[in-house]
Every structure is written in C-alpha cells, then in structure tokens.
Specification:
This protein folds into three domains: about 120 residues, no CATH class; about 70 residues, no CATH class; about 200 residues, Immunoglobulin-like, CATH 2.60.40.10. It contains twelve helices and 17 strands.
C-alpha cells in the first residue's frame, strides 16, 4: 500500500507541475530563505508545495539556489536553522502534513525534467515580445528589427526574412519595434505592427497574380539555389561583364565588370548594333561607371554591345556581351506595373521589385535590386538564394559559385 501511495503522490506532483507550466503562471519575487529551507529540510508544508514548485519552474535563479542548498544539506555544511522543523510565531509546531525530506531531490529532478520537455514547446518569450500564429501563407518583402519564425513541425526558430514565406501553422515572435510587411494569397498587403496584422493595401488582381507566381516558383528557386553552377565554377581572373546583360529595362544603366588584372585600368566601349556605331569609349581604373551624362539614353527596343578590355590592350582578353532594351507594348506594361509595385512596397530598392523583375525574366535588373538590398541585409539567406539564382540565369558561374559557398554555410 505504501508503494502505491508513493506512486500516486509522484503522479499527483507531476500532473501539478505540468498543469502549472501550461497555465504559464509564476511568482514575481524570489523564494526566501525559509521557503528553500523548508523544501530542502523536508519541513515544507504540502499546502505550500504548489507555490514553491511553481516558482522553481519559472525562476532559474531559485532553481540553482535550491539545488546548491540541497547539495550543501546532504554534505552537512548548512546552518542548523535549516535542520530544525518550521515553527509558528508563538513557538508551536506548524499544523499540516509535512513533505518527507526524501522527496526533495526527486522534486528538484522533476522540475528539471518537466522544464527540459516543456520549455522547447512553450518558448519563454523575450520581455515585451508577442507571439502570433500564422493562419495563411504570406510572402514577406520587408522587415525591420529581428522578428523570428517558429516552425510548426520541428520547433526550429529562424529569422523572418524578406524574400521568404511564412506558412500556416507557424508562429511569429515579434519584439517591440519589430515590423513586417507581407503579401497575402488574396493580394492584400498587411503589416505586423506591435504584434497585430494591419492592412496596408486591399490588393487587386495584379497583386494576387504576383503572389501566385511567387508561390508557384518557390520550389524552383530553392532547387536552383542549391544546385551546382550551370556555367561551371568560372575563372575569377578573367574579365567579364556583370551588367548590363541579356534584357534590361533601364535606359541609362550602370556598367559593371569583374576579373582581369587591369594594371593600367580598363577600356570600355558601348556600341549600338542596330546603327552599327559606337556610343562612347571610356578608360576607367575601377570596375564600374555610371551612364555618362553627355551620352544619350538607350533606345527602347534597341540592341547593344558592351566591350571591356584590360589595359594594356590585348585582343585575347576582351570581354564582349550583347544586350537589348525592352520596348513596345511590353515596356508600357512594365512601366505601369512598376508604379503599382511602388504603391505596394514603397519607393526605392525592394524585394517586390526584385521579384517582379525575376518574374518578367529581367534577371540583370533583379540582380541589381538584390545587390542593393544585400548591402543593408547581408545575412538574409532568402535574399542570397535569390541572388544566386539570378547569377545562374545570367551565366555568371564564378559569382554563382562564390555565393553558393556562402549560402551553404548559412543555411
């Protein structure tokens, strides 16, 4: 009977601990010396046991004090005060049933076990933080602060990152000052402010189609971000044009190149292939120039060629690449869409603009947007994955391979 009674008593205490932890209650003040003395010496009344256990669950400092005091008590090095039974103010014995001292180590162990199992599931929030469950998928395009995302399946905690999605069942932990802007599946733009979602734009057919395409391409982006460079690892010492490439929208693009020794600078030439004429020639020491003010803008629908040659000039080292400027009806549509993108995501470089250019196949300008964003958010893995895919689409094997190494380290 005694064994059954002790087993029932253990079960009662475990259930009590779990129930108290689920209620997320806890004391504000630390346990005093009398509470710890009663627990360690076995003179704590069972009527006080719940309060002490509950506090031990919530307070790491008092747990350490209790464990240390228990070790000292067993070694016989604590003051005699802790060895005497608790007394009333009038000197009499306290009424009530005392918890046997042999239970003390077990109680402390039970507290530790419950915490080890339950705390990873409950996640004690930072001071002032809020926790918001996600009920539908969102495409995140802006973030301020350091909001975190808790995965529904494995409990993994990771940052909320622009360029990524938050999925139903996940939870967002936001501290004071954290801010998120995201696009919902119905095209609505919402912002997480002070732990609550607020509408920023009701959305329309354009924003809904934008979300649908981003969601549909999500697996492809992840696969390409993990793939080996299609154009090979490339050679870092060979001069190569970085921008502009393929198809662009900008009529006055910056020109960028990489590689090559360029001991005496680089000679840059831009040609109009439709008119078979040279637009301009420059000699530069660095690896980028803005479109010259005195040179006319590029022509919508035009085809062009850029040549970059290290100095002293050698025909074997010249890099030549052709590109074209979007024109006609397509250009009018893009101009109109970019106005809407600015209304949804604000002016300046944005993840919405980068994603829009990717969807339109303008990978050079998607890469330009992502490079600008990277300067302010270099740890964003979702951004780095998208940038790696842009390099791949542009055939920049050397840049893609370098970024793949970074992505693999940070995943």
């Amino acid at each position: 009977m005694r064994g059954h009674h002790e087993a029932d008593e253990r079960q009662r205490i475990v259930h009590y601990l779990v129930r108290e932890l689920a209620d997320e209650s806890g004391a504000v003040e630390h346990l005093d010396a009398e509470d710890l003395a009663g627990l360690v010496s076995g003179t704590l009344l069972k009527t006080e046991l719940g309060r002490v256990e509950n506090h031990l669950l919530a307070c790491p400092a008092c747990r350490r004090r209790a464990i240390d005091l228990q070790a000292d008590f067993e070694a016989g090095v604590v003051p005699m005060l802790l060895r005497r039974p608790a007394l009333r103010e009038d000197g009499g014995r306290l009424f009530g049933r005392r918890l046997p001292r042999r239970w003390t180590p077990w109680i402390l162990g039970a507290v530790a076990a419950v915490l080890a199992i339950a705390l990873p599931m409950t996640e004690i929030l930072p001071f002032g933080a809020s926790r918001r469950s996600v009920r539908e998928r969102h495409f995140v395009f802006r973030r301020l602060g350091s909001p975190q995302l808790i995965d529904a399946e494995d409990g993994e905690v990771r940052p909320v990152e622009p360029g990524g999605f938050v999925d139903p069942g996940q939870e967002i932990v936001a501290r004071p000052g954290d801010y998120i802007e995201a696009l919902k599946s119905d095209g609505e733009v919402v912002a997480l402010v002070e732990g609550r979602w607020r509408q920023r734009d009701p959305g329309d057919l354009f924003s809904k189609r934008f979300f649908d395409r981003a969601e549909a391409d999500r697996p492809t982006i992840r696969d390409l971000a993990a793939a080996e460079p299609e154009a090979g690892r490339g050679l870092g010492d060979v001069v190569r044009v970085i921008h502009p490439l393929r198809r662009i929208h900008d009529l006055r693009p910056s020109l960028r190149w990489a590689g090559g020794s360029g001991g005496q600078g680089f000679e840059i030439r831009v040609f109009d292939e439709d008119d078979d004429r040279q637009l301009f020639k420059r000699v530069e020491d660095g690896y980028a120039i803005h479109w010259p003010d005195e040179v006319l803008s590029l022509r919508p629908g035009g085809r062009y060629r850029i040549e970059v040659q290290p100095r002293p000039v050698s025909r074997d080292l010249v890099a030549k690449l052709r590109f074209e400027v979007v024109g006609g009806v397509e250009r009018d549509e893009i101009d109109r869409d970019l106005v809407r993108i600015a209304a949804l995501g604000g002016a300046g470089p944005s993840m919405l603009r980068a994603e829009y250019f990717r969807q339109r196949g303008l990978h050079a300008e998607a890469r330009e947007e992502l490079e600008r964003l990277r300067r302010a958010d270099s740890e964003n893995v979702e951004l780095l994955m998208r940038l790696k895919v842009a390099y791949r689409r542009l055939g920049l094997g050397y840049e893609e391979s370098r970024l793949l190494t970074i992505v693999e380290k940070r995943r």
